[in-house]
Sequence to fold (470 residues):
Amino acid sequence: MAQLWGGRFTKETDKLVYRFNASIDFDRRLYREDIAGSRAHVQMLAKQGILTEEERDAILQGLAGILEDVESGKLAVTEEYEDIHSFVEANLIERVGEPGKKLHTGRSRNDQVAVDMRLYIRRELGETDRLLKGLLKTLLAMMEEHIDTYMPGFTHLQKAQPVTLALHLGAYFEMFKRDRQRLADIYERMNYCPLGAGALAGTTYPLDREYTAQLLGFAGATANSMDSVSDRDYVIEYLSALALVMMHLSRFSEEVIIWNTNEYQFVELDDAYSTGSSIMPQKKNPDIAELVRGKTGRVYGALMSMLTTMKGLPLAYNKDMQEDKEVVFDAIDTAKGCISLFTGMAATMKFRKDVMERSARNGFTNATDAADYLVNHGVPFRDAHSIVGRLVLYCIDRGISIEEVPLEELKAICPVFEEDVYEAVSLKTCVEKRLTAGGPGRAMMEQEIAASREYLAKAPVIGEKGEETR
Fold:
């Protein structure tokens, strides 16, 4: 059992306790970050005269060799080590001898794991942001394609008013855009380096923490040594942002599932993103959308787990905080996988424009416009609302739409109706005359699409100009 401690102890750790305490099973994925932090630390130690240049070069060469061998598969991260830190240090000492024993000078595992997690979360913020930007590009292309695709807009899952598919998709564009903005906010707050904070109270060595932060691409060093090793706000914020991403994906997935039913038939899912039934040959199931919807709870669980873990911890570091990894890694992997798969599913969906338009026509989505027509001809709105309500009942009894009611029958309900009412309640008119900002009218949608295109062109992926963690 390779451990970084032991001088104080006279007995070996019980094997069950060791396994319970060890984190190598899951923190092995931090090997890049651990080596990056160690490289920066040793360069700073040499700059400050704490190590010689020869010792620095030997350690750097050894760390480079470990990284290369792990990535090539030549060196495995095995369970004989307690954690990723002991793996790196033990292999370094084996390779370079005495200089390797000086790597941990002026450093604690508390600030070491803190910098590893910050580097890792920072990298994953960028990866998540890149995937979201890809999804937004897909949505924008769909909006451009469907600027004139009419469909019913819904409230309470009841047909409400006619809109366009571009407007509907644009709502999700705004959601995922806000998700990107949240990720960028988190990045700005968490991009400070805790290395040099020691166990909780700094160190007596003359460390240059700003230089270490600079080497690792951080904006600066963290301000308080106790907060440096006990802060996991950035982890919780990231999980919160991922929970919102998953909530948005789940809402969209729910609509795809509904639209894919025989009752709606708004959308046809590509075979590559559907599955069949083992017993019913006619089935084509929206499994990807359903799994995205289902996995949302998994990410929510990770957020609640971390909030619960942190809620009662006194300062500074406590072993409870080792729980910041396993569920967090799983949540990140889950969310990234869902974004990627949903993007592919969305890009290959085929919309049934004729069915969507027919659904809008047959759902009295133009009833509000019929009332507005009467108002524009001098009828008080409350009276107009009542008149059109009776007109809708009249149409339901006969199984027809408002546009199909002959003019003389319309006049029998309200003499104010004239021939121009048919133009006023057509889907095209109902959509096009909604020219308030953010509405479905073509002119407004063209502005929204142009603004969205400009946003994607100007909003770089987090860390695109970025930091080096290798």
